[in-house]
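Q:
My hope is that you can spare some time for a protein that puzzles me. I hope you can help me see how the letters and the C-alpha coordinates relate. Thank you; the sequence and its C-alpha coordinates follow:
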Amino acid sequence: MNYKQAIEIVKKQRIYFTNRSQLEVEEKSRANYVTNIDKTIENSIKEELAIVYPHIDFVGEEELENKTSSLYWLLDPIDGTQNYIKRQYPSMISLALVENDIVTFALIYDPYFDDVYEACIGQGAYLNGQRISVSDNNLEKAIIMLGTSPYNRNLSKKTFTLARNVFENVSDIRRSGSACYDLVQVATGRADGYVELIVQSWDFAAGYLLVKEAGGVLSNIEGQSLNKIKVGPTSIVASNKRVHDELIVLIAKAS
Protein backbone atom coordinates (compact mmCIF):
# COMPACT_ATOMS: atom_id res chain seq x y z
CA MET A 1 0.00 0.00 0.00
CA ASN A 2 1.17 3.50 -0.80
CA TYR A 3 1.21 5.75 2.27
CA LYS A 4 2.43 8.98 0.64
CA GLN A 5 -1.06 10.45 0.55
CA ALA A 6 -1.61 9.62 4.23
CA ILE A 7 1.60 11.48 5.06
CA GLU A 8 0.52 14.51 3.04
CA ILE A 9 -2.91 14.52 4.70
CA VAL A 10 -1.26 14.66 8.12
CA LYS A 11 1.30 17.29 7.08
CA LYS A 12 -1.50 19.59 5.91
CA GLN A 13 -2.48 20.01 9.57
CA ARG A 14 0.72 21.93 10.28
CA ILE A 15 -1.10 25.23 9.88
CA TYR A 16 -2.88 24.66 13.20
CA PHE A 17 0.49 24.69 14.97
CA THR A 18 2.24 27.47 13.06
CA ASN A 19 -0.76 29.84 12.85
CA ARG A 20 -2.61 29.67 16.14
CA SER A 21 -6.32 30.47 16.21
CA GLN A 22 -8.64 31.06 19.15
CA LEU A 23 -8.70 28.01 21.43
CA GLU A 24 -11.77 26.52 23.05
CA VAL A 25 -10.64 24.22 25.86
CA GLU A 26 -12.67 21.52 27.55
CA GLU A 27 -11.44 19.48 30.53
CA LYS A 28 -12.60 15.88 30.01
CA SER A 29 -11.20 14.84 33.40
CA ARG A 30 -8.48 16.12 35.72
CA ALA A 31 -5.54 17.34 33.58
CA ASN A 32 -7.11 15.69 30.50
CA TYR A 33 -7.91 18.45 28.03
CA VAL A 34 -9.34 18.63 24.53
CA THR A 35 -9.48 21.68 22.30
CA ASN A 36 -11.48 22.63 19.26
CA ILE A 37 -8.25 22.19 17.29
CA ASP A 38 -7.90 18.55 18.39
CA LYS A 39 -11.39 17.95 17.02
CA THR A 40 -10.77 19.94 13.83
CA ILE A 41 -7.56 18.04 13.04
CA GLU A 42 -9.16 14.68 13.77
CA ASN A 43 -12.18 15.40 11.56
CA SER A 44 -10.00 16.71 8.73
CA ILE A 45 -7.70 13.67 8.74
CA LYS A 46 -10.61 11.25 9.09
CA GLU A 47 -12.50 12.74 6.15
CA GLU A 48 -9.49 12.84 3.83
CA LEU A 49 -8.32 9.34 4.71
CA ALA A 50 -11.82 8.03 3.96
CA ILE A 51 -11.59 9.45 0.44
CA VAL A 52 -8.17 8.01 -0.36
CA TYR A 53 -8.46 4.75 1.60
CA PRO A 54 -12.22 4.01 1.71
CA HIS A 55 -11.68 0.36 2.72
CA ILE A 56 -9.90 1.29 5.97
CA ASP A 57 -11.85 1.92 9.18
CA PHE A 58 -10.97 4.76 11.57
CA VAL A 59 -10.55 5.19 15.34
CA GLY A 60 -9.66 8.60 16.78
CA GLU A 61 -9.00 9.71 20.34
CA GLU A 62 -11.61 12.47 20.38
CA GLU A 63 -14.52 10.59 18.82
CA LEU A 64 -14.08 6.95 19.74
CA GLU A 65 -16.28 4.75 17.59
CA ASN A 66 -16.81 1.01 17.49
CA LYS A 67 -14.68 -0.14 14.60
CA THR A 68 -16.31 -2.62 12.25
CA SER A 69 -13.12 -3.91 10.63
CA SER A 70 -9.83 -5.52 11.67
CA LEU A 71 -8.07 -2.93 9.47
CA TYR A 72 -8.19 0.62 10.83
CA TRP A 73 -6.35 3.89 11.29
CA LEU A 74 -5.62 4.85 14.90
CA LEU A 75 -5.15 8.60 15.39
CA ASP A 76 -4.10 10.97 18.13
CA PRO A 77 -4.66 14.43 16.58
CA ILE A 78 -2.54 16.27 19.17
CA ASP A 79 -0.37 14.21 21.49
CA GLY A 80 0.67 16.73 24.11
CA THR A 81 -2.53 18.77 24.21
CA GLN A 82 -1.65 20.50 27.47
CA ASN A 83 1.68 21.57 25.94
CA TYR A 84 -0.24 22.88 22.94
CA ILE A 85 -2.61 24.89 25.15
CA LYS A 86 0.30 26.39 27.12
CA ARG A 87 2.38 27.06 23.96
CA GLN A 88 5.04 24.65 25.12
CA TYR A 89 6.92 22.09 23.04
CA PRO A 90 6.35 19.25 22.15
CA SER A 91 3.00 18.37 20.55
CA MET A 92 2.79 15.83 17.75
CA ILE A 93 0.30 14.04 15.49
CA SER A 94 0.29 10.25 15.66
CA LEU A 95 -1.24 7.96 13.02
CA ALA A 96 -0.94 4.17 12.97
CA LEU A 97 -2.42 1.58 10.63
CA VAL A 98 -3.53 -1.50 12.55
CA GLU A 99 -4.34 -4.80 10.86
CA ASN A 100 -5.48 -7.78 12.92
CA ASP A 101 -4.10 -6.07 16.04
CA ILE A 102 -0.65 -5.53 14.45
CA VAL A 103 0.68 -2.05 13.60
CA THR A 104 1.81 -2.25 9.96
CA PHE A 105 2.46 1.45 9.27
CA ALA A 106 3.39 4.27 11.64
CA LEU A 107 3.58 8.02 11.21
CA ILE A 108 4.48 10.60 13.84
CA TYR A 109 4.57 14.18 12.61
CA ASP A 110 6.34 17.01 14.43
CA PRO A 111 4.65 20.11 12.96
CA TYR A 112 7.02 22.56 14.63
CA PHE A 113 10.05 21.21 12.76
CA ASP A 114 8.13 19.67 9.83
CA ASP A 115 9.70 16.32 10.72
CA VAL A 116 8.14 13.08 9.48
CA TYR A 117 8.91 9.90 11.42
CA GLU A 118 7.61 6.85 9.59
CA ALA A 119 7.93 3.08 9.55
CA CYS A 120 6.47 0.13 7.67
CA ILE A 121 6.62 -3.27 9.27
CA GLY A 122 9.80 -5.09 8.27
CA GLN A 123 11.23 -2.08 6.41
CA GLY A 124 13.00 -0.01 9.07
CA ALA A 125 12.24 3.39 10.60
CA TYR A 126 12.97 6.76 9.01
CA LEU A 127 13.14 10.47 9.82
CA ASN A 128 12.57 12.60 6.71
CA GLY A 129 13.72 9.69 4.56
CA GLN A 130 16.89 8.93 6.55
CA ARG A 131 17.19 5.63 8.41
CA ILE A 132 17.15 5.91 12.20
CA SER A 133 18.22 3.50 14.91
CA VAL A 134 18.23 3.20 18.67
CA SER A 135 21.33 3.82 20.78
CA ASP A 136 23.73 1.30 22.30
CA ASN A 137 24.21 3.02 25.66
CA ASN A 138 24.30 1.05 28.89
CA LEU A 139 22.11 1.99 31.86
CA GLU A 140 24.71 4.19 33.55
CA LYS A 141 24.97 6.38 30.44
CA ALA A 142 21.27 6.30 29.60
CA ILE A 143 18.78 9.13 29.28
CA ILE A 144 15.32 7.85 30.20
CA MET A 145 12.09 9.57 29.19
CA LEU A 146 9.47 9.35 31.95
CA GLY A 147 5.73 9.80 31.65
CA THR A 148 3.77 10.65 34.80
CA SER A 149 0.30 9.35 33.77
CA PRO A 150 -1.30 12.65 34.89
CA TYR A 151 -4.86 11.40 34.32
CA ASN A 152 -4.28 8.62 36.88
CA ARG A 153 -3.22 10.38 40.10
CA ASN A 154 -3.67 7.14 42.03
CA LEU A 155 -0.40 6.07 40.41
CA SER A 156 1.56 9.14 41.53
CA LYS A 157 3.34 7.47 44.47
CA LYS A 158 4.48 4.54 42.32
CA THR A 159 5.40 6.86 39.44
CA PHE A 160 7.69 9.04 41.52
CA THR A 161 9.19 6.12 43.43
CA LEU A 162 9.95 4.66 40.03
CA ALA A 163 11.40 8.00 38.89
CA ARG A 164 13.78 8.03 41.84
CA ASN A 165 14.80 4.40 41.30
CA VAL A 166 15.55 5.08 37.64
CA PHE A 167 17.27 8.43 38.25
CA GLU A 168 19.69 6.93 40.76
CA ASN A 169 20.86 4.38 38.19
CA VAL A 170 21.03 6.35 34.92
CA SER A 171 22.66 9.49 33.54
CA ASP A 172 19.43 11.53 33.74
CA ILE A 173 15.67 11.50 33.21
CA ARG A 174 13.35 13.68 31.09
CA ARG A 175 9.62 14.53 31.19
CA SER A 176 8.14 15.92 27.96
CA GLY A 177 4.36 15.58 28.28
CA SER A 178 4.09 13.67 24.98
CA ALA A 179 4.37 9.90 24.62
CA CYS A 180 4.97 10.31 20.88
CA TYR A 181 7.91 12.60 21.52
CA ASP A 182 9.34 10.22 24.10
CA LEU A 183 9.10 7.29 21.71
CA VAL A 184 10.76 9.09 18.80
CA GLN A 185 13.57 10.08 21.18
CA VAL A 186 14.17 6.38 21.77
CA ALA A 187 13.79 5.48 18.07
CA THR A 188 16.38 8.08 17.03
CA GLY A 189 18.84 7.22 19.80
CA ARG A 190 18.55 10.66 21.41
CA ALA A 191 17.23 8.89 24.51
CA ASP A 192 17.75 5.30 25.59
CA GLY A 193 14.43 4.40 27.18
CA TYR A 194 10.90 5.50 28.01
CA VAL A 195 8.66 4.38 30.87
CA GLU A 196 5.04 5.21 31.73
CA LEU A 197 2.55 3.34 33.91
CA ILE A 198 -0.55 4.17 31.84
CA VAL A 199 -0.76 5.19 28.19
CA GLN A 200 -3.55 4.84 25.66
CA SER A 201 -3.22 2.90 22.41
CA TRP A 202 -3.49 6.04 20.27
CA ASP A 203 -0.60 7.55 22.26
CA PHE A 204 1.89 4.77 21.58
CA ALA A 205 0.79 2.64 18.60
CA ALA A 206 2.77 4.56 15.96
CA GLY A 207 5.73 5.03 18.28
CA TYR A 208 5.70 1.31 19.01
CA LEU A 209 6.45 0.42 15.41
CA LEU A 210 9.00 3.22 15.05
CA VAL A 211 11.01 1.98 18.03
CA LYS A 212 10.72 -1.65 16.97
CA GLU A 213 11.81 -0.95 13.39
CA ALA A 214 14.68 1.20 14.72
CA GLY A 215 16.02 -1.86 16.54
CA GLY A 216 14.47 -1.26 19.96
CA VAL A 217 12.27 -3.37 22.19
CA LEU A 218 8.95 -2.64 23.92
CA SER A 219 6.89 -4.31 26.62
CA ASN A 220 4.57 -3.50 29.47
CA ILE A 221 6.09 -2.99 32.92
CA GLU A 222 5.86 -6.74 33.60
CA GLY A 223 7.97 -7.43 30.53
CA GLN A 224 5.10 -8.78 28.44
CA SER A 225 5.03 -8.03 24.71
CA LEU A 226 2.94 -5.17 23.30
CA ASN A 227 2.92 -6.51 19.75
CA LYS A 228 -0.87 -6.96 19.83
CA ILE A 229 -2.49 -3.51 19.85
CA LYS A 230 -5.88 -3.16 21.52
CA VAL A 231 -7.82 0.10 21.76
CA GLY A 232 -7.36 1.14 25.39
CA PRO A 233 -4.71 1.59 28.10
CA THR A 234 -1.50 -0.25 29.00
CA SER A 235 1.80 0.39 30.73
CA ILE A 236 4.87 0.75 28.54
CA VAL A 237 8.63 0.34 28.60
CA ALA A 238 10.53 1.15 25.38
CA SER A 239 14.29 0.94 25.11
CA ASN A 240 17.40 0.32 23.07
CA LYS A 241 17.32 -3.37 24.18
CA ARG A 242 20.51 -3.06 26.21
CA VAL A 243 18.82 -1.40 29.21
CA HIS A 244 15.41 -3.05 28.98
CA ASP A 245 15.71 -5.83 31.54
CA GLU A 246 17.35 -3.49 34.04
CA LEU A 247 14.50 -0.98 33.65
CA ILE A 248 11.96 -3.73 34.32
CA VAL A 249 13.78 -4.59 37.56
CA LEU A 250 13.86 -0.94 38.68
CA ILE A 251 10.14 -0.60 37.97
CA ALA A 252 9.35 -3.73 39.98
CA LYS A 253 11.18 -2.26 42.96
CA ALA A 254 8.79 0.71 42.91
CA SER A 255 5.76 -1.52 43.52
Notes: The longest strand covers residues 71-79. The mean pLDDT is 94.
